[in-house]
Amino acid sequence: MDGTLIDSTPAVVRAWTAWATEHDITAEQLAGNHGMPAASIVARLLPEDAHARALERINTLELTDVDDVVPLPGTLHTLAALPASRVAIATSCTRPLADVRIEASAIPRPDVVVTVDDVERGKPHPDPFLTAARRLGADPTRCLVVEDAPAGLTAARAAGCATLAVCTTTPRHELRADLVVESLADVDWHVDADGISVAPLTP
């Protein structure tokens, strides 16, 4: 969702910068965690006895700042082009955070939204995408995952899914996927009875 369908970067940066400052975490320590659940980031950066309070704090910061959350290029066209019954969001957000960001961005909400609260292990583990596929009634090997972060792409490959990467938050050379494009505005969707196909738009 974040960085793939919606641009929440300004809000994310504000929240995590404030949190890092409060916890004496440097920008270098915070780097490289995009696409991972907040709980995993907190666990990597702080001692165990600080986890609960630190996680509560970042959740509060993120839930109360949804300014500037908007759809990314191509998102509305993509969600309009694809049947709702074949689309899911699988996000590292908590359920409350996913709800407020979907509402703030005003993107159409799919029937299937899988959050970190719905799985035992978040990205880079495959659980979010396997859960989304199961709720869609789909074989994971017949699913396409659209991602903007290496952790999400690792999770998608582990789930056996095809991958499409967008360069909205991560440099192209760091994205290992079946197809890499700048954004969803750069792909063409075709839907038929056999499934959904995607191809890069030609200049």
TrEMBL record:
Gene3D superfamilies reported in the protein's UniProt record: HAD superfamily/HAD-like (3.40.50.1000), Putative phosphatase, domain 2 (1.10.150.240)
Keyword Oxidoreductase: no
One Pfam short name: Hydrolase
Protein name: HAD family hydrolase
UniProt GO molecular function: sugar-phosphatase activity
Taxonomic lineage: Bacteria, Bacillati, Actinomycetota, Actinomycetes, Propionibacteriales
Keywords: Hydrolase
